[in-house]
């Protein structure tokens, strides 16, 4: 608006300049004498004039003695000038009048811009009011952005596509039955749940499961994310909720799926600095809608979250989300089935063992597993293979686990040595421990954030871990750092994640699992998920400062003990540690077989063409490591002599 005014102003100035220029350069040929208005009127009244020519406020008049004059009519005189002074004389043909002194633009024309501006204001005002009330038909802001997933035969998923989750499927079976034939249930007077809350970490198949319910029942599926409700415009959320439910009711029976419901359904008044009004309005509207639509309208609301603990309790009351289904990370059997589902339309080579892959991927969510099979297929395609081989899957696995390999990253020699010794440290220490998982692969190719990577094959999924296992876990985590310090007398930042994890385990042993003799079998603090700012700020510790320092001491003891153990083990196995480090420097990646060979003291295959010729040399070694190596070799010599 302001800009336009500026533009118009500029044009005005330009036009004025032009006009003055024209006036200056083209002066009128002859100037006509002027008379003032009073004189003009007097002339008219004394019948002295022959003709008058009006040009707006300017009048040129000729007297009866053929003299021409000019005059300017004052603004207020123009309106009824003709009627007051001239009409009679013109009618009597005593005076000739050309033009009119009346304004060309009538008064109301001046009002038009004002009226327009007023109109615009009223429009906006009306629009905003409508917005906050919602349900406006003239705009699309209030419309829900729900995506309708049409269940045609091609992308129809049903329960048979959902691997594992047997109990969950059984629980949802009732809802499927209801959606299929609501009449039956209505006649029985049964109360069907309105809302089902699916709780679980991301990628565990909450959306997938809901879609399968819709597919199984062959009903429309409306999907919307909680964050779509909450937007810039105040009041949009509430109106979107209303709109979504209106649409759903028209399409009943159907399923509404709200992803990330925590975006709207967080505990009211839990945010910092007071509640978020917009969110609260949206949540209230959601509650109203869920209360409002009758049980038998055939709309089932399914919602997903990974934070059930931060949801407003009002949402979980009967008649709202009164069913909660936990969807967890799948176990080994579930993983195998999920791999089966996602390799259905992929060609697998005969060496592919899904059971083995499932065993190697604890903690993978269904989304990760789907991604894994997809990556494997991509790799196979890139290699122009016509089938997916085990090798492709194994490479894909590492990619999914730790980000794509960065072969191109330039790594200095120093860094390579440090990483090799670090990873060798992890691997060697864990093979010396009775409770650690076997090493599956070691690599010093940087992946994602990690400089290197040691992968283990867990023997089996266990639902609990023993104290011995946890202690060994800490020892093998610290193995990397210990090896760096012991062999190279230099430590890197690469171990920070290991140390963090080790500390976390040690702390959990003391405060959560009651595994410390000194502290006792007590749980300290409530460690329910990570801290949520709004909720936990005011949380008080349920133990004293004294206990806190005791806990810290005990955690420190566990870590120190583990550190010493790792150091002893690595000192005893120094030559193996160096052999593994050298092999890593040479080949970058060692598989299980190579690693086992080295640990047995056997030689591995060397590929001259691709091998790096770096080695950990004597000059790299720390004093301590040198001493250990020397002692070992002299002892071996002595043993030989003794024989
Ligand atoms: P969430 O909604 O929990 O974040 P999704 O429902 O988006 O997770 O699941 C991600 C992907 O994982 C889905 O696209 C699906 O292919 C796969 N998936 C999830 N659960 C299963 C399952 N039980 N069986 C097979 N595939 C699954
Ligand atoms: Zn490490």
From TrEMBL:
Top-level taxon: Bacteria
Record-given protein name: ATP-dependent zinc metalloprotease FtsH
Role: Acts as a processive, ATP-dependent zinc metallopeptidase for both cytoplasmic and membrane proteins. Plays a role in the quality control of integral membrane proteins.
A GO MF term: peptidase activity
Organism: Peptoniphilus stercorisuis
HAMAP family in UniProt: FtsH
EC top class, as a word: hydrolase
Binding site for Zn(2+): 422, 426, 498
Region (Disordered): 601-643
Alphabetical list of NCBIfam families matching this protein: FtsH_fam
Cofactors named for this entry: Zn(2+)
Gene it is expressed from: ftsH
Entry's cofactor comment: Binds 1 zinc ion per subunit.
Subcellular location, principal: membrane
């Amino acid at each position: 608006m302001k800009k336009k005014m500026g533009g118009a102003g500029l044009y005005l100035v330009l036009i004025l300049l032009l006009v003055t220029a024209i006036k200056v350069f083209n002066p009128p040929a002859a100037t006509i004498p002027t008379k003032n208005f009073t004189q003009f009127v007097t002339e008219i009244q004394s019948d002295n004039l022959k003709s008058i020519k009006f040009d707006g406020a300017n009048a040129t008049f000729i007297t009866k003695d053929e003299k021409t004059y000019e005059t300017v009519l004052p603004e207020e005189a123009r309106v009824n000038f003709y009627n007051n002074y001239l009409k009679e004389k013109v009618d009597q043909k005593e005076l000739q009048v050309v033009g009119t002194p009346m304004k060309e633009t009538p008064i109301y024309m001046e009002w038009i811009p004002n009226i327009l501006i007023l109109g615009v204001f009223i429009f906006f005002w009306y629009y905003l009011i409508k917005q906050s009330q919602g349900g406006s038909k003239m705009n699309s802001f209030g419309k829900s952005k729900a995506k309708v997933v049409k269940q045609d035969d091609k992308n129809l998923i049903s329960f048979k596509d959902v691997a594992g989750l047997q109990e969950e499927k059984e629980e949802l079976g009732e809802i499927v039955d209801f959606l299929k034939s609501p009449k039956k249930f209505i006649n029985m007077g049964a109360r069907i749940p309105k809302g089902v809350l699916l709780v679980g970490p991301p990628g565990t198949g909450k959306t997938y499961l809901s879609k399968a319910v819709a597919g199984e029942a062959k009903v429309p599926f409306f999907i919307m994310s909680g964050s779509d409700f909450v937007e810039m415009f105040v009041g949009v959320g509430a109106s979107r909720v209303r709109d979504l439910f209106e649409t759903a009711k028209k399409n009943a029976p159907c399923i509404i799926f709200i992803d990330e419901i925590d975006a709207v359904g967080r505990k009211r008044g839990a945010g910092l600095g007071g509640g978020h009004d917009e969110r609260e309005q949206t949540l209230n509207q959601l509650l109203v809608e869920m209360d409002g639509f009758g049980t038998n309208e055939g709309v089932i609301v399914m919602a997903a979250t990974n934070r059930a603990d931060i949801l407003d309790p009002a949402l979980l009351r009967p008649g709202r989300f009164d069913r909660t289904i936990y969807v967890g990370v799948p176990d080994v059997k579930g993983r195998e089935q999920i791999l089966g589902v996602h390799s259905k339309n992929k060609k697998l080579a005969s060496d592919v063992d899904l059971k083995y892959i499932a065993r190697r991927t604890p903690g993978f969510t269904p989304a990760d597993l789907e991604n894994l099979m997809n990556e494997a297929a991509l790799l196979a395609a890139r290699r122009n293979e016509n089938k997916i081989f085990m090798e492709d899957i194994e490479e894909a696995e590492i990619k999914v686990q730790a980000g794509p390999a960065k072969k191109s990253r330039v790594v200095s020699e120093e860094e390579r040595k440090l990483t090799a010794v670090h990873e060798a440290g992890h691997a060697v220490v864990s093979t010396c421990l009775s409770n650690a998982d076997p090493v599956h692969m070691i690599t010093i190719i940087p992946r994602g954030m990690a400089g290197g990577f040691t992968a283990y094959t867990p023997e089996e999924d266990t639902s609990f871990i023993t104290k011995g296992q946890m202690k060994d876990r800490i020892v093998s985590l610290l193995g990397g750092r210990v090896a760096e310090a012991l062999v190279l007398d230099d430590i890197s930042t690469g171990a920070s994640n290991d140390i963090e994890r080790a500390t976390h385990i040690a702390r959990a042993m003391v405060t959560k699992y009651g595994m410390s003799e000194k502290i006792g079998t007590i749980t300290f603090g409530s460690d329910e998920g990570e801290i949520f700012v709004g909720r936990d700020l005011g949380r008080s510790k349920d133990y004293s400062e004294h206990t806190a320092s005791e806990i810290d001491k005990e955690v420190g003891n566990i870590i120190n003990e583990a550190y010493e153990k790792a150091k002893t083990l690595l000192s005893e196995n120094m030559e193996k540690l160096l052999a593994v480090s050298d092999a890593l420097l040479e080949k970058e990646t060692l598989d299980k077989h190579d690693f086992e060979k080295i640990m047995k003291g056997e030689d591995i295959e060397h590929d001259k063409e691709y091998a790096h010729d770096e080695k950990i040399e004597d000059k790299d070694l720390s004093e301590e490591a040198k001493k250990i190596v020397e002692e070992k070799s002299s002892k071996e010599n002595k043993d030989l002599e003794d024989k």
